[in-house]
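Our platform keeps sequence and structure together, in a single record for each protein. Nothing more is needed to write down the fold, since each code stands for a local backbone conformation. An entry from our holdings is shown next, in its original layout:
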Amino acid sequence: MVKITFVSFTGSSSTVEAQPGATVMETAIKNGVPGIEAECGGACACATCHVYVDEAWGEIVGPPTAMEEDMLDFGYDVRPNSRLSCQIKVREELDGLVLQTPERQA
């Protein structure tokens, strides 16, 4: 299993185990991570699973696709390290990944 740590905007954190092949969003919902709403269920049709990728993980996670960038335009407080968690596939290389959730979702 891959461990992912979610840090809320208040600074509290939660580390969960993720199954490779799942998305980070699916993992967050399954584990009740606060701050991830996922209204579209992972179809990249909203921006309610928006997260910030920790700077140390940016290259490993990779950049957003063009479609994801379009959806991020609807996100709240979008930053250069913003991603939609529904578009990040869990893989072994992401063991230890740290993500922050924004103050609120769009």
In short: The chain is about 15% helix and 20% strand. The longest strand covers residues 2-7. Residues 2-99 form a domain with the Ubiquitin-like (UB roll) fold (CATH 3.10.20.30). The mean pLDDT is 97.
